Automatic annotation (TrEMBL):
Organism of provenance: Rhizopogon vinicolor AM-OR11-026
Protein name per the record: Uncharacterized protein
Signal peptide: 1-16
Keyword terms: Signal
Pfam family, one: Rot1
One of the record's GO cellular component terms: endoplasmic reticulum membrane
Superkingdom in the source lineage: Eukaryota
InterPro entries documented for this protein: Rot1 (IPR019623)
A single BP term in Gene Ontology: 'de novo' protein folding
Amino acid sequence: MIFTSLLLLLAVPAFGQDIVYDAAHNITAITGTWSSGSMNVVTGSGFATPSQESFTYPPTTGMSYSFTVDGFYEIARYRMTSNGSVPNCITGVMNWSHGTYVLASNGSIVMTPFGDGYQQIQDPCAAISNFIENYNYTELYVLWNIYQDAVKGYTLQLYQYDGSPLPPQYLVSTSPNMLPTQALRNVSAASTSTAAKRDVQNAAVNANAGERRWGAASLTGLLTVISGLGLASLLL
């Protein structure tokens, strides 16, 4: 896979020198559990039940990332997107994945899933208003840092493949709140198999404008943000 190869290449310094993880960049370890906003979305058993492909809906939207000291991660995300032309058509997406991560010396993070991630899409205006689909994308965050917020304390800031920041996440616990770090559901069969469902999935993703952005980046975005790697020649 070209995209996977590109992510592996990003594990080398992108700007000619390694980042020194001093107090100005990272005042505490990334290990533990982080959550955005009102911190109602938290990884672990209170969010997803992979064996049943189900979710427990939190009272508000948000996202949560957990990291172990030995290289495992888990992500929980709940988003709602409105439709400006049809105000009552609000798309809700619950998203869960986990796997292994690498903190590259160039300051990026590469997250590789186990392959059992999934998400639930609810759209009252779609032909199929509620369905589950697999979600297994390697995710790249080109930069990250941790700083001290005057009110909420330690704050994790992640930057997506195109340099755009995610909402800041605040430290919930220094011990990661996670499900077991292994594959937790059978994904041998596709969660959605009919052409009609695939059409609805594509429509929901397009209306959602950001859900796929959680995952695989476009090659153009990668080449624009990460300079100095000489990747363009590899694509010719």
